[in-house]
Design brief:
Radius of gyration: 19 Å
Largest sheet: 5 strands, parallel
Structural class: alpha/beta
Subunit structure: Heterododecamer (2C3:3R2) of six catalytic PyrB chains organized as two trimers (C3), and six regulatory PyrI chains organized as three dimers (R2).
Protein name: Aspartate carbamoyltransferase
CATH architecture of the largest domain: 3-Layer(aba) Sandwich
Strand content: 5-15%
CATH class of the largest domain: Alpha Beta
EC number: 2.1.3.2
Number of helices: 11
Function: Catalyzes the condensation of carbamoyl phosphate and aspartate to form carbamoyl aspartate and inorganic phosphate, the committed step in the de novo pyrimidine nucleotide biosynthesis pathway.
Distance between the termini: 27 Å
Organism: Planobispora siamensis
C-alpha cells in the first residue's frame, strides 16, 4: 500500500482486498471481552476535523484506541484555526508533535493532498469537500461483502444527491476496482459534469434499475451544500427518487439497502425501509470501526495481528 489514503483511486484491487481481509481478521477481536490489541502502541494518531462529524470522528478514535495508539482529537472550533491559522501552520504544529498518522476532514476538496506534502506521517482522508471519502467506501464494500460474498459482477445502484456526495465518488471508484457494476440514479441537476468519465452507468429512472439491483445505496440530500434549487420540491424528489415501501417491495429477495448516514427519514428513505432486516445502516457504523482499524494498522505498520488478549 501507499503511505497515504487520500482517494479510493489510490487503491489497487490487491490493496483493497488486503484492507477488507485485514478488517475480517480484526472483526474477530470485537467479539472478545477485551477488544484491544497492542499493535500501534507508542504511535500517535491525530484526528484533525475542520468539519463537524460525529460518526466518522468517533469511528476513527475508537479504531485507533483499539489498536492501542495515542489519540489527539483536534477540532477547528475553539482552536488557533478559528483565529486564522492556516492549514500549513497547523500541519507544521502536528509535525513538531510527532504525529505518526493524521486523519483529516476538511470542507475544501484537496486539503488532505496538500497536508500530505507537509507532514512525514501517513494522511487519511476522512472526507474533503465534495471530493472523496475513501474509508466510507471501504466500509461499504466490507458490509456488502459480508452480506453478499464476492462483489465481482454484483449490481450496485447509488441513488440521490451524487453532485455533493464524496461517498458516491469514492464508492464508484472502489466498487469498480472490485469488479462490481455501478449505476448512479439521480436528477440531472444532481449529477456532476464530470460523471461521464466515471466508471459507471447513469440513469434517471429509479424504477427501471431497482429490480436488477443487488445493493441499493441511498444518499442523503445535502441541503447544507445547496445554494440553488436543484429540484422543484422535497415531495417531488421523494416521489421520484425516494425508496418507499412500494419500491422496496420490488427489490430482489436478497438485495440489501444501504445509507452512509445521517438519514433524512421520509425523504430519500422511508422509516420502515431504513429499519428493515435487509437494511445494513446500523451494521455500516459498526463495520466502520473495524475497517478503519485495518486502514490504520496497514498504513502505520502495526505489529503482528496475532497480538493475544492484551
Amino acid at each position: 500500500m501507499k503511505r497515504h489514503l487520500i482517494s479510493a483511486a489510490d487503491l489497487s484491487r490487491d490493496d483493497a482486498l488486503l484492507i477488507l481481509d485485514t478488517a475480517e481478521e480484526l472483526a474477530k477481536i470485537s467479539d472478545r471481552s477485551i477488544k484491544k490489541l497492542p499493535t500501534l502502541r507508542g504511535r500517535t494518531v491525530v484526528n484533525l476535523f475542520f468539519e463537524d462529524s460525529t460518526r466518522t470522528r468517533i469511528s476513527f478514535e475508537a479504531a485507533a484506541k483499539r489498536l492501542s495508539a495515542d489519540v489527539i482529537n483536534f477540532s477547528a472550533k475553539g482552536s488557533s484555526v478559528s483565529k486564522g491559522e492556516s492549514l500549513k501552520d497547523t500541519a507544521l504544529t502536528l509535525e513538531a508533535m510527532g504525529a505518526d498518522g493524521v486523519v483529516i476532514r476538511h470542507s475544501a476538496s484537496g486539503a488532505p493532498y496538500r497536508l500530505a506534502g507537509w507532514v512525514r506521517g501517513s494522511v487519511v482522508n476522512a472526507g474533503d469537500g465534495t471530493h472523496e471519502h475513501p474509508t466510507q467506501a471501504l466500509l461499504d464494500a466490507y458490509t456488502m461483502r459480508r452480506r453478499l460474498g464476492s462483489l465481482e459482477g454484483r449490481r450496485v445502484t447509488i441513488v440521490g444527491d451524487v453532485l455533493h456526495s464524496r461517498v458516491a465518488r469514492s464508492n464508484v471508484l472502489l466498487l469498480s476496482t472490485l469488479g462490481a457494476e455501478v449505476t448512479l440514479v439521480a436528477p440531472p441537476t444532481l449529477l456532476p459534469v464530470s460523471v461521464a468519465s466515471w466508471p459507471c452507468e447513469v440513469s434517471y429512472d429509479l424504477d427501471t434499475v431497482l429490480p436488477k439491483s443487488d445493493v441499493v445505496m441511498m444518499l442523503r440530500v445535502q441541503r447544507e451544500r445547496m445554494n440553488a434549487a436543484f429540484f422543484p420540491t422535497e415531495r417531488e424528489y421523494s416521489r421520484r427518487y425516494g425508496l418507499d415501501r412500494e419500491r422496496f417491495a420490488r427489490l430482489k429477495d436478497d438485495a440489501v439497502v444501504m445509507h452512509p448516514g445521517p438519514m433524512n427519514r421520509g425523504m430519500e428513505i422511508a422509516a420502515e425501509v431504513a429499519d428493515s432486516p435487509r437494511s445494513t445502516i446500523v451494521e455500516q457504523v459498526a463495520n466502520g470501526v473495524t475497517t478503519r482499524m485495518a486502514v490504520l494498522y496497514l498504513l502505520l505498520g502495526g505489529a503482528d495481528l496475532g497480538g493475544g488478549d492484551q
